[in-house]
C-alpha cells in the first residue's frame, strides 16, 4: 500500500481577527455616547424663561468662542461663509427650524451680531441666544 502524502491546505484563521473587531466595536459603542461634541463655551448667566420650540425639528446649535470663531458639532472652527452654507443646508423651507447661538460670555457683541446676521442670511427665521440659568439663591 502506498500512501500519498497529504496536501497541506494553507488557510488563514480569521476567528481571532473577528474577536478583536467585536471587542473594538463594543468599545466604540460604549464610548461614543460619552464623547462631547462641540467646543467648551462659558455661556453668560441670565434669568429668563426656558426656550420652548414649537417645531418638531431639533434646533441647530452654533457655538462661538471668545475669539469669535464659529463651531458646529465638531471641534474645528468654520468660517462665516461655511456657517451660512451649513445653516442654509439644514433649514427646511416648509418648517421653521430654530437656530441657537451659544456664545462665550467674554465674546464681543460684534462677533455675536455677525453670527446672528449669518444665520439670518442663511434664511433662519427664529434665532435665539443661549445662556446658562442663574443658580437659585439659598434661603
Describe the structure in brief:
With 139 residues, the protein is an alpha/beta fold.
Can you offer a commentary on this structure?
Helices cover 29% and strands 15% of the residues. The protein has a five-stranded mixed sheet. It has a domain at 45-133: Nucleotidyltransferase, domain 5 (2-Layer Sandwich), CATH 3.30.420.270. A hairpin with a 5-residue loop joins β3 (70-71) and β4 (77-78). The chain has helices spanning 15-31, 80-90, 109-121; strands spanning 45-46, 60-64, 70-71, 77-78, 99-103, 127-129, 132-133. With 139 residues, it is an alpha/beta fold. The chain is elongated, with a radius of gyration of 26 Å. α2 crosses α3 (109-121). It contains three helices and seven strands; from the N terminus they run αββββαβαββ.
Core attributes:
single chain; 139 residues; alpha/beta; Nucleotidyltransferase, domain 5; five-stranded mixed sheet; two-stranded parallel ribbon; 7 strands; 29% helix; elongated
